[in-house]
Known about the structure:
The chain is of the alpha+beta class. It has helices spanning 30-38, 49-52, 58-70, 75-83, 88-96, and strands at 15-18, 25-28, 106-107, 113-114, 120-122, 126-128, 133-135, 140-141, 145-146, 153-158, 161-166, 170-172. It has a three-stranded antiparallel beta sheet, with no helix packed on it. Strands 9-10-11 form a three-stranded antiparallel beta sheet, with no helix packed on it.
Amino acid sequence: MSDQCALCAATDAVALVQVTPRDDxxxxxxxxxxxxxxxxxxxxxxxxxxxxxxxxxxxxxxxxWRLLKGLSEAVWxxxxxDIAYLEPDVMDWxxxxxxxxxxLEHRDSNGALLSAxxxxxxxxxLPVKGAGFTAKxxxxxxNISLVPDNAEHIEGRVEGQRIVILTxxxxxx
Length: 173
């Protein structure tokens, strides 16, 4: 294990971190590791990426590029990304580790992640338009479907009818 961070050259509390999806590892300090795992927040610490993006080690370039993408609100980070060059295979590696920005997350009223097939409970009486009934609070809706283009909508069967339900009116059971 290296005795200094591959990004900022700090020597305190350095640990090896895998650069997914490959098996390559680099040494990172606690601050850089937190930025990799939880997303960086624009701060003077990340100025170290000015040097890291030009590293001879591909894994360091990949991590620096991903962190710069996470700092896209910062003008200096966007400028650095504009001039940075990564070999095509390194760029593919860097992009393959980013979360899909098009992937929607459906969350219930408490913030719990919903998946297709889950069961939920209504937390409010909901008048169902066009069906002439009210879905009562406490009604269980089993085997829900996620609406692919709207994170606030799910579909489920209530009283034998398939309806669209807003996620803010359900909790996962």
